[in-house]
Amino acid sequence: PLSIRVQRQNAFDNGEIVKKEGKYYLTVSITFKKPSAAAVFVLGHNANGWMEWKDKDGNTLDSIYRKQLE
Hints:
Number of strands: 2
Distance between the termini: 33 Å
Shape: globular
Number of helices: 4
Radius of gyration: 14 Å
Helix content: 40-55%
Largest sheet: 2 strands, antiparallel
């Protein structure tokens, strides 16, 4: 399987990520098995997706999903 960074670069090269008015947009849907993989794809560097992804109120995935299981 391709590394997340290679997948990200391929998406740029193939026009699946485009820049409009200073912001980047995906032109296709991409699914990831883990939130950290999605965060690495978006940010372009190592990241903990459980802490990076937040809802509109600033709650992390960790606080929403993992903490409920405890």
